Amino acid sequence: MITGAEAIVRCLENEGVEFIFGYPGATVCPLYDKLTKSSIKHILVRHEQHAGHEASGYARIKKRPGVCMTTSGPGATNLITALATAYMDSVPLIAFTGQVSSELLGRDVFQEADITGAAEPFTKYSYLVKNAADLPRIIKEAFHIASTGRPGPVLIDIPVNVQTDKLDFYQPGAVELRGYKPTIKGHAGQIKRVLRAINNAQKPVICVGGGIFAAEGQKELMQFSESINIPVVSTMMGIGAIPTVHPLYMGMLGMHGKSIANRAISDSDLLIIIGARVSDRAVLLPANVSKNTKIVHIDIDPAEIGKNLDTIIPVVGDAKEILKQVMEEEPERKSDEWTGLLKASREKLTLDYEPRKEGINPKAFVNLLSRTLPDDHIYCADVGQNQIWSAGNCEVRSGRFLTSGGMGTMGYSIPAAIGAKLAAPDKAVVAVCGDGSFQMQMMELATICQNNVDIKIVVMKNNKLGLVKEIQKNAYKNNESGVDLTGSPDIVALAAAYGIPGRSIDSMDAADEAIGEMLSNKGVFLLECIVDENESSM
Amino acid sequence: MKHTISVLVENKAGVLARISGLFARRGFNIDSLAVGITEDKNISRITLLVDGDDYIAEQVTKQLNKQIDVIKVRKLDQEEITRRELVLVKVKMSSDQRGEIIDIVKIMQGEIVDISHSTLTVEMSDKPEKIDLLIDLLTPYNIVEVARTGTIALQKGAAIV
Prior knowledge:
Radius of gyration of chain B: 18 Å
Distance between the termini of chain A: 62 Å
Number of domains of chain B: 2
CATH superfamily of the largest domain in chain A: Thiamin diphosphate (ThDP)-binding fold, Pyr/PP domains
Helix content of chain B: 25-40%
CATH architecture of the largest domain in chain B: 2-Layer Sandwich
Oligomer: heterodimer
Structural class of chain B: alpha+beta
Order of helices and strands of chain B: EHEEHEEHEEHEE
Largest sheet of chain A: 6 strands, parallel
Largest sheet of chain B: 5 strands, antiparallel
CATH class of the largest domain in chain A: Alpha Beta
Strand order of the largest sheet of chain A: 3-2-4-5-7-6
Strand content of chain B: 35-45%
Radius of gyration of chain A: 24 Å
Shape of chain A: globular
Structural class of chain A: alpha/beta
CATH class of the largest domain in chain B: Alpha Beta
Number of helices of chain A: 22
CATH superfamily of the largest domain in chain B: ACT domain
Largest interface: A-B, 17 and 20 residues
Number of strands of chain B: 9
Distance between the termini of chain B: 22 Å
Shape of chain B: elongated
Strand content of chain A: 15-25%
Number of helices of chain B: 4
Number of domains of chain A: 3
CATH topology of the largest domain in chain A: Rossmann fold
Helix content of chain A: 25-40%
């Protein structure tokens, strides 16, 4: 017989877990007690929300569920934003929360919170464990649910007495959930319809979302678009699905996207959506799109098809499998007329990379930064103007672009970068945030130092909550309200207090050299870029 | 438009909360919801009456299917099903009204299941429209309490969900 806590640790080792991002407390003490004897490394975060984000960054790069752990009550509720962020972006997480002893459940005792209830809208599934003997089965199921189908976070709430109860450990058999059987292969009849639609189209466009990464189908996507000569646009979550420098890539679509990407969609006669939710930010007026455009929607989650956009040809399944199936049917290659038209327009686009009289041009800076970084670098963008500057101007070649797309959670970039770096220690990882979002995550500098995580941090400082200020400028007669960040610390000095080297630049003349200094520094580095508060996001 | 949706779910704690939460969150209007165990004690059947257009009915079906604990979802064709609802109506009356009420209950093929000096309790199991009619007929008297189960339904003939 072993304890529930020992069983949990053993199960996690069997699942190949390398890291747990967590924060201890009374109701997870039995588990923490057993962790010291395990090969699993615990990363102590400085706020529970970041435990979830770090697990998210890890999961997105490692292509395996990230694991986070907090105590009951406030520890658990602090995690909710990270669960919601992961849920919206379909990131596989396993979240363990401690819970008060099971005989006290429902009595509102110290640090009791109904976390399975509270997190229900933001989890793919959740468990409140009542018997220690169920733990091996539940943990196996949780990893299966989190990582298959449309990935997402799974919460396991474990009362403290269940962690100390004894059980006969067993290896759980194959997961058998009769209500959960994700479709992988596309329906043959629908594949034929897709083929006909492609063959009949004059102006097809592919719109790719984050689902392509979950399916690990980037290679197939590139083959597909190249072999049939179809231009590609992406949602924010789909950035980097094919290299942003690829001749067939027309940029990100939507409210903050490239005009050429939006034009490609509105002029198209066939829109092939792959692993995207077509949310309001991506397609402002779904009805306008579907009027003249035939729509193929490929998604592993049937509930996403037809939710926001009328679909002519729905195909449920794994994006990579379906792309392979379509290619096997050998669709006709399209002429260069349509792609040529778009490519020509794209070349005419003028990019605003001019140096400013005062301050950094943020668009030029992120472009320069991403071009200087190795091809396979991981770029973590935060939320706010910095996200739009990054999404529109950074080059993603063979690496990844990580951001909180669906929830738009400020304070995501640094923890995500920490998780990503631990998942891929050999890759260059950079987090780009604003001075607003930086202050939502700056406590993680300690986590970085404690674990020697070599990430590079760029803070775009304009002393404002820039994106809100911009909304107030455009829609509220410039009535700035609650967006002034006066009182913020000297960020470079703050980093220095942690022993983190850094510097501040306020002119593009220094950018090249400063980026060089940052990237050649062994270990974490913080670069502050002074940006004028009137820089617009587009 | 009314849609009848039959849902087979795992019979375990928290499933109903998850499903009812889903309706609230996504703004689906549910007219009635009836839950009960099936021939398999591990499976419960939820019968839903949903008000909305075809888009809503499709969204409800898809979102239900997405739930891990939902085993099967079937939107039932209104013409191809047997529908039943059970009602208990307590009517307060004077002794001279008793005969009239008993007549109504007889015509409606209901049953008097409880009686006191001042009240009658009527039970009836029928299509929801007939239940509505019974309540309508009893309204001129003093209805003091009504309990309805919500509609349950099965397909006619050999068809099963």
